[in-house]
Amino acid sequence: MSTAPAARSGGLDPFSRRSFLGAAGVALAATLAACSRSFTGASSTGASSTGSSSADPAGPLRIGAIPDQDPEILARLYGTVADAMSEGLGLEVSYEPVTDYAAAVSLFRTGDLDLVWFGGLTGVQARLQPPGALPIAQRDIDEDFHSVFVVNAGTGLAPADDLTPLADLRFTYGSETSTSGRLMPAYFLEEQGVDPERFPGGPGFSGSHDATLALVASGSYQAGVLNEQVWTSRSEEGAVPPSVVLYARTPAYHDYHWLLGPRAVERLGDDLPERLTDWFTSLSADDPADAAVLELFGAGSFIPTEASNYDQIEAIGRDLGLVN
Fold first, then answer.
1. pLDDT digits (tens, 9 = 90+) for 201-252
2. Which of 258, 308, 257 is nearest to 114 (CA)?
3. 279-305: buried (b, 16+ CB within 10 Å) or exposed (e) per residue?
4. Measured between alpha carbons, how far is 95 from 101 in angstroms, rounded to an integer?
5. SS3 string of 255-303?
6. Helix (H, G, I), strand (E, B) or coil at 195
7. Is the dihedral of CA 88, 94, 100, 104 positive or negative?
8. pTM of the predicted structure, to 2 decimals
9. Model confidence pLDDT, tens digit, residues 255-303
């Protein structure tokens, strides 16, 4: 590993037995069963260009997302998306915040959320539950995604390819079912002989990438991992404290994507998947309104995607008991 751009990893062996997340699969199943109605916060509804309303028997297109960043950032991002999508598609669109990653998967399964921005692992978990769920689009950066390991400057560590020094540090992941904040980083740690569950005191779980940054910055944890897109965004904003040092960058993998549920197609028409894919992939940085959406996602464009892009993550998840 290095802090320079890494080539796509082709040497992963997702079928080798790993046990570090086995218990998490049981915990996840229990959480999913308990949170089928875990909406929090108010909805943000876009105005329809065709005059549809909540009285429309088809109802709105309800979008959601895994809560991987600060809630205020998510509300601004997905409120903007709901408004733009509503105008572009002539549909009523509402954004529904959720409490945690498991709630997003559960609400998608029950049909309470129609279109959800998932990470790689949660997307696989969600797609395998209601037959007919369809990947719609991913960002250009999601076909070549990376995580970054960060350390507190007090550790004295400088950027390196070797992850083994992290084994002796107090370490935090993001969410327990985050692809970029837990699953893939843990896989790459184990690839280098670091037991991803045996950090001093056990690993922490911050709940989000922003929280991971804050905990490492404060010294509550000496090291952590988050997705590269959040790291880049916060760095450009000047929001990364000097006490946080970028240590290493993982090999590439597929990650975030939009997933559409079958009930939305039943309500809003068989052409809905194609309409959504066309809308996302037609967003252009040359158009000010489109550029605002792309900028919030940290993307140059959206591109089509398909289920096979997440086969690697599915295989690792099955091996670890996180995918049934």
1. 999 999 999 999 999 999 999 999 999 999 999 999 999 999 999 999 999 9
2. 258
3. bbeebeeeeeebeebbebbbbebbbeb
4. 16
5. CCEEEECHHHHHHHCCCHHHHHHHHHHHCCCCCHHHHHHHHHHCCCCEE
6. coil
7. negative
8. 0.75
9. 999 999 999 999 999 999 999 999 999 999 999 999 999 998 989 999 9
